[in-house]
Amino acid sequence: MNSVTTLDNLSDIDWVNIINNLVNGKTITAEPDIFDLNNPHYMKIYNTWRSANFNMDSVRWTNYYEYGDLTSVISKRLNVTPLRSWISRIDPGYIAPWHYDVDEREDEYIVKNAQRYSCFISESSIGDITIIGDDLFSNIEPGVLIKWNNRLEYHTGICASMKPSYMYHLIAY
pTM here? Predict the structure, then answer.
């Protein structure tokens, strides 16, 4: 069973310019001060990583939030109402290990039956790997847009290439 559906190609968007102008990212690591272990969802994910003897020093990714104009363009093309958007970056040698996303707005997403969309925006690079459920993506051209069949699907991002990996994400209804 597929975990995502490929929808569209957004290669007409200037992803290089968007990536080059990213500012004010929030870096996430497995450090207890950053990874909120008071939240039971985070604790569940963290304990799963520890039980697997995961190298916690390799856990690091950066999120850049709320891209109004970009999100408006993409939402209009999808005919959806946006709730949250962000761009994620994983640098070479780092990973966002197997996890599901924890969000403080989860109650709102449930009420609005929110869906998740993601777009690969980096130049394709061997070693840039994303796994969502049972779907594996590697060396994907920028602009490929997918819709998750389950917004809370477990997923991972691995950057074993020589340049950062970027994706755009949208929660919408």
Answer: 0.92
